[in-house]
Specification:
Length: about 120
């Protein structure tokens, strides 16, 4: 059974940093992509950053230059380093793993970790 477990959230002042971790119960190479999403109160869940199996990374415009997604293959863990945090980064952050075949796509989700940035 696939499990994704996030950690590293918390309360930080504006301008501060946090590093989120997402540990998978299986090899992260079993996913075509691993992503970080976030959902703020009253808003839709949005894609923050992605790392593809080949290593390509993508970021939402709102976090480019401030957030970095990376992975440690040996630890089956994906990270999201968040610098220069802003109050608008406050949200629950979710780890997502995507598996794609010729006929289906399946998403695996973690339970989420709260990030709160105070002004």
């Amino acid at each position: 059974q696939v499990q994704l477990v996030e950690s590293g959230g918390g309360l930080v002042q504006s301008g501060g940093s946090l590093r989120l971790s997402c540990q998978a119960s299986v090899s992260i190479f079993s996913f075509n992509a691993m992503d970080w999403y976030r959902q703020a109160p009253g808003k839709q869940r949005e894609l923050v950053a992605s790392i593809l199996s080949g290593g390509t990374t993508n970021y939402a415009d709102s976090v480019k230059g401030r957030f970095t997604i990376s992975r440690d293959n040996a630890k089956n863990t994906v990270y999201l380093q968040m610098n220069s945090l802003k109050p608008e980064d406050t949200a629950v952050y979710y780890c997502n793993g995507v598996r794609v075949s010729a006929s289906w796509t399946y998403d695996y989700w973690g339970q989420g970790t709260q990030v709160t940035v105070s002004s």
